[in-house]
What does this fold into?
Amino acid sequence: MTKSYNRKLLGGVAATIAALGFMAGSAAAEELTVYTAVEAEDLKRYAEAFNEVHPDITINWVRDSTGVVTAKLLAEKDNPQADVVWGLAGSSLLLMKKENMFETYAPAGVDQLDSRFRDNSDTPVWAGMDAWVAAVCVNTIEAEANNLPMPTSWADLTKPVYKGHIAMPHPGSSGTGFLDVASWLQMFGEEDGWAYMDDLHENIGAYTHSGSKPCKQAAAGEVAIGISFAFRAAKSKAQGAPLEIVIPSEGVGWEMEAAAIVKGTDSLDAAKKLMDFIVSKPAMEHYNQGYAVVAMPGVSKPIEFYPENITDSMIAMDFEWSANNRDAILAEWTNRYDSKSEPKE
Amino acid sequence: MANVTLPKSRREVKPKASSDDWTMRAFMLMIGTYLVVALAFPLYAMLSKSFEDKDGVFIGLDNYINYFSTPALFNSIENSVFISVVTMVITVTLAFFYAYALTRSCMRFKGFFKIMAMVPILVPSLLPGIGLIYMFGKQGYLNWMLFGYEIYGPLGIVIAEVFFTFPHALLIIMTALAISDGRLYEAATVLRASKWKIFWTVTLPGARYGLISAAFVVFTLVITDFGVPKVIGGQYNVLAVDIYKQVIGQQNFSMGAVVSVVLMIPAIFAFYVDRQVQKKQVAQLSARAVPYEPKPNFRFDTLMMSYSSIVVLIIVTILATCQFAALVKFWPYNLDIGLQHYNFDLMDGGGWDAYYNSIKMALWTAAVGTIVVFTGAYMVEKGRGFDQGRTLFQFLAMMPMAVPGMVLGLSYIFFFNNPDNPFNFIYGTMAILVVSTVTHFYTVAHLTAMTALKQMDKEFESVSQSLQQPFYKMFLRVTVPVCTPAVLEIAIYLFVNAMTTVSAVVFIYATHTQLASVAVLNMDDAGDIAPAAAMGMMIFYTNAIARVLHMFVAKALEKRTQAWRQR
It folds into this structure.
């Protein structure tokens, strides 16, 4: 190919794009509405990284807790508002896949991902990003002041000595809360799992709306122990909070963050470009700033204060089971524990 | 409502409507349509939603049966009533003595004490909750004062609600104490009644309507408030938070509608009693009454000033705590001062844009609201014809007082988010936030306008009519200038409340229209309490500046428009 030919081609393409742009009104500045449950402080960074590759596509974030975003997407099923979901619990996406809410698309380079982090079916709809892992934040100063021994296991947390000292996220609104509940049910079995939560409930001081709040509260000493996730714990510790990050000895539940294109989007091409970026190496490097385990093998670098060897503690989670039983689990949970309205003795 | 029924003779001889009358009727229709679309239709949509299941199928009373067979839900009724009654008793008592100090003593700095007592109006109700966490939470610097009791729960709710409702009660009780008849005191003194006896037989009975009215206003404010229990309620469920949890936490709109209907019952009841009492209070003042003049009494005045100082100290402490906490790097472990909590763009809630949106929204609310409310009040008070329409309008204008903000917001989802609704296009825009806020605060603004308009003689209208001037000329050239103080008062009232309200907007804001007050809520939800305090204080400063500006503008305009009042 000669240079002049190249230039002609470029010119032609430019003219065509300009013409198309003229016809479409403002195709140049395309906008995508992206639903997410990613921590607010990461969103700007993610969008900037994407705009380095595609400066012409603007991302409009709609962020909330996992439960809220999930419920919102389900509620809007017949009249979807989102174009792409970027950063929502894998079990939520599985649930919506069953409802046929996503566009089938295998992003370019998705085969580079660890097979646990990609949709291996004939009609792939979702792609994984990273894993977030349960962890327990213990405020060392508060623990000492209240004579609380350092817990080492989930079972420890049901000891009477911790009564009122533990905060945990509400599984209805928080993805972290739901993965905790799902992991206990899978680890201990259904019957023992509920029995465990009955005991734990006795010690819970507050159920919070979001998954990061228990750890932030523990960091600030408002509670002694917060059931949260490892990334949040490491971050609060890095800010100077007197925290000990405990990975319970029975193993910890985890959940994948994943992405998918919402069926019926007006901007399918832009959405595909975004999906390609989501599974790309630069994106993975961004996820790695917060998450030690990312979908692409060989990318991950250690994170300050992030518990080492956490991968060994991650239990084998059955996400299909979590997704299929989500409604039933939440209904049962609400029935048992949501009525903590009586002032505690 | 009685005041708009025209004399009977009017009905017997019906004058022919002129073109001016028709213009006026068109205006009435427009303003009336506003209230029907912004209030009556949405509430109807919500009511019918409470009888439907998730897919919109009519299921009769099933939702209600479900509600009343779930202890987690119906226990909240008792909780809500409990905290409302306790707060009512405490606030009214505290506000009574404060009002007593302001009206019946000769203590110094009354102007200062009056202004300071109004400060809580300028902040969102979430803020006192946050302040209490820093004062009495596990790491609070006054935690020892609780003797092991927990601030999260009814205790914290009541303290914060007292802070939040104090100015509202104070205003009402002050008015009641100010209109008492000085002659009664003279008579009592001549009859050698002791001070104590005078207090119980003259002062209290004289202020009884004010006290009852204040009590019900406080009750309504507390039972419909959402900010305080959300922040500091812990696991103590109340109705207003239940609506939020059902709608936002679980997207269960039908149950949210049911709780809304349940919440409206006590609110409407309190509203009804208050209206009855207010009517009586007006009748109490006779034309020959002489205003009471307090006489200096060193011991009494010192006592009253000490009391008022303590109240002001508490108000200032709560706000100062919030400001300090917003500046501290990492409470309680690193008390270095820094501005990093003002980096709102890294938090939930929409960042600094939310703050600018709030100012924009508040300005729109003040501008649109003042025009709609004042014109509406003019039509009711001075309009001609359409008697039944005007009575209905007056009724609609009073209704928002009894509708909790959350209920209004939720009913807007049902009504405006319906694709078949011709007004659907305002959903998700700034306009719907303005409409919701104007409607939510309609009643008080309407009453302010009505009071000002009632002071103007009807003769003005008769004269302009006999001079064959169209009513709008009269309205713009005479009525509005004469009522300037009231118009400005309505504008600032709407601005301040638009800045602080959470409940009226929390269900209907969109990504592009996040608001500062909602950001406070969302940051607190995510555990970022210090930035929440920082944003809350930004709202306070903005409102304080707006108030000061209002004062200057009012003074300047008063010179121009109110000169005729001077001789």
